[in-house]
Design brief:
656 residues; alpha+beta; Calcium-transporting ATPase, cytoplasmic transduction domain A; Rossmann fold; six-stranded antiparallel β-sheet; 16% strand
Length: 656
């Protein structure tokens, strides 16, 4: 999305290190220069104190200046730390307060002041690093205007979005942002849909076309029939799903969370032991070992480790969303990085989903083409299957009007039947007619199928009246997408209800290694389960409606073209807002790189923390360095590394 959903990182602050500030106070601080000014003043005082102590040898005066620097930089840190303890929560602010007080106590005033100064600086930098992410979510929420111009009672009135009802007519002028989901009833214009679908180029909209809330009308006046309430628009669903994505955590995220809960107490126990055991049992200098314990205390905060996984995952989700790909949780990013096989539905996924009638062939006289089309279109007008729509559209072009149908029945995966003028008729697959016990010309059908056409027969209780050949065009990007997936080492499989001849031709054209043909919806589920057993994990890609059961059974279910389908948005794990097969290899590539960044962050956090802890015990790590590098510096580095994922530009998309 143009506005991106990096903003969800607002929820990713380390729970072990949070203060009590509510969101309004937190956001207010982002827009306030006060912390920066205080840090500058504190830094200046710290520098003066260092000059007084180490150059002018004025320790008494330097101690006063160090205290002033600590007060300026750390007054809010101390307040936050005490507040967290009152609420029975161990925060980084409290740990830093203890470290600073302890440093002054053992005669290291410059270290105490430096701890609070560096902590304040690093805190400002860290907040600035994720400030943009918070603003992005706010911008996403505000995409849809708060008001709309509605035509009521012959007048144009301005109403709040919540006052607009389904069935109202909304007027959107050039340059205006469309406030509702609906269908164009009057006018023609180009619309920027990048905020919803990720499309870089505006799309022409005219009468009957669907438009989405939050998109921008460019150059014409549009009158739109409202089809969804303000809380049911695509953009509102996306915001809701992204907010909920944090709950669907990956295995790695859950592990790091559990590890972090044990890490801090263990290091705290170690810090106390370092402060007490050597002086009491070995007679070593108390001040030296308290100082070393303070260093361990600072290192004990798991901020960098705890934040390394969620913020990386959210950055990955953001990167996908910017490309019009909605991922519903980190668990799916992790699974996508590990899968070995990808199964595709054919119609509407690998093909454009708008099959065309190529042949209308009566079996014998006196059956005419018009009669055959009349029977077929009458029955298929009651169905929503893509092949049914192709027949109806062809009949309209041929100006053949459908007739009244009674006793209509749809046989899933086989065909339809109904009564016209008192006689029962059937339209469906050759297999259905064989089940009815009617004679089928197999050679004639095979000739048509070898040309890559799907065959439907039309008949009554006694005989087959004719044949209709239908062909769906392969999507331009589909073959390239399959090629990229195979280069990733992934097995590609096609699942289709078409017969084996049509499936074989399509698989050959696409470069797909394996296909399963003649499948009913429940049989697709069975194949998906078998693929999971064989490969350990499988992605299923379909339209999200007819393939909903298979999507639900897959390790990750991906719905293509979900922007116009509520069912797809609800049932899938990943939604491609547009019909773009190239987004599949992009998604796989992004998931792999997201997990790579996450592992980098985890390894960096553990190595740096453990290294500082080891060197702290023999006294080789100064307190200021533990803060600057081992804690807040490391946290900032982890955040910045994670945010690289959200701006990832893959070679796959550039290759186009």
């Amino acid at each position: 999305m143009a506005t991106s959903i990096v903003g969800v990182a607002i929820i990713m602050s380390c729970e072990h290190c949070e203060t009590d500030h509510d969101e309004s106070v937190h956001l207010e601080r982002h827009n306030d220069r006060k912390p920066i000014v205080l840090s500058v003043v504190a830094g200046t005082l710290l520098l003066i104190g260092l000059v007084l102590k180490f150059i002018l040898d004025m320790e008494i005066f330097s101690l006063a200046v160090f205290l002033a620097s600590a007060g300026v930089a750390g007054h809010q840190i101390v307040i936050d730390g005490l507040r967290s303890i009152l609420h029975r929560r161990l925060s980084i602010s409290f740990l830093m307060t203890v470290a600073a007080v302890g440093a002054f106590f053992v005669g290291q005033g410059e270290e105490g002041a430096a701890v609070l100064f560096l902590f304040s600086i690093a805190g400002v930098l860290e907040e600035r690093a994720i400030e943009g992410t918070k603003k992005s979510l706010q911008a996403l929420v505000k995409l849809a205007p708060e008001t709309a111009f509605v035509r009521r009672g012959g007048k144009e009135v301005e109403l709040t979005i919540r006052e607009v009802k389904v069935g109202d007519k909304v007027i959107v002028r050039p340059g205006g942002r469309i406030p509702v989901d609906g269908a164009v009833s009057v006018g023609m214009s180009t619309v920027d849909q990048s905020s919803v679908t990720g499309e870089s180029m505006p799309v022409t909209k005219q009468k009957g076309d669907t438009v989405f809330a939050g998109t921008i009308n460019h150059d014409g006046v549009l009158e739109i029939d409202v089809t969804k309430g303000s809380d049911e628009t695509v953009i509102s669903k996306i915001v809701k799903m992204v907010k909920e994505a944090k709950e669907k955590k990956s295995v790695t995220e859950k592990f790091v969370e559990r590890f972090s809960t044990y890490y801090t107490p263990l290091v705290l126990v170690g810090a106390v032991s370092v402060a007490i055991v050597p002086p009491l049992f070995f007679g070593l200098p108390f001040s030296d070992w308290v100082y070393r314990a303070l260093v361990l205390l600072v290192i004990s905060c798991p901020c960098a480790l705890a934040i390394s996984t969620p913020i990386t995952m959210i950055s990955g989700i953001t990167g996908a969303t910017r490309q019009g790909v909605l991922v519903k949780g980190g668990i799916y990013i992790e699974e996508l990085s590990k899968v070995k096989a990808i199964a595709f539905d054919k119609t509407g996924t690998l093909t454009i989903g708008k099959p065309k009638v190529m042949d209308v062939l009566p079996s014998h006289n006196p059956v005419t083409t018009a009669k055959l089309l009349s029977i077929a279109s009458s029955l298929e007008s009651m169905s929503h299957h893509p092949l049914a729509k192709a027949i109806v559209e062809h009949s309209e072009l041929e100006r053949v009007k459908p007739r009244d149908v009674t006793n209509f029945q749809e046989m899933m995966g086989k065909g339809v039947k109904g009564t016209i003028a008192g006689e029962d008729y059937y339209v469906g697959s050759p297999g259905m007619f064989q089940e009815l016990g009617l004679r089928v010309n197999k050679e004639h059908i095979e000739d048509l199928e070898r040309a890559g056409k799907t065959i439907l027969l039309v008949g009554n209780e006694d005989e087959v009246l004719g044949t209709i050949g239908i062909k769906d065009k392969v999507r331009d990007e589909a073959r390239e997408s399959i090629l990229h997936l195979r280069q990733h080492g992934l097995k590609t499989i096609m699942l289709t209800g078409d017969n084996s001849t049509v499936a074989r031709e399509a698989a050959k054209e696409l470069g797909i290694e394996e296909y399963h043909a003649g499948l009913l919806p429940e049989e697709k589920v069975k194949i998906v389960d078998e693929l999971k057993e064989k490969y350990g994990g499988v992605v299923m890609i379909g339209d999200g409606i007819n393939d909903a059961p298979a999507l639900a059974h897959a390790t990750v279910g991906v719905a293509m073209g979900a922007a116009g389908s509520d069912v797809a948005l609800e049932t899938c794990d990943v939604a491609l807002m547009r019909d773009e097969p190239m987004k599949i290899p992009y998604l796989i590539d992004l998931s792999i790189k997201t997990m790579r960044r996450m592992k980098e962050n985890i390894i960096a956090a553990i190595l740096v923390k453990s290294t500082f802890a080891i060197f702290a015990i023999p006294g080789l790590t100064p307190l200021w360095l533990a803060v600057a590098v081992g804690d807040m510096g490391l946290t900032l580095a982890v955040i910045l590394n994670a945010m690289r994922v959200s701006n990832l530009k893959t070679e796959i998309l550039h290759h186009r």
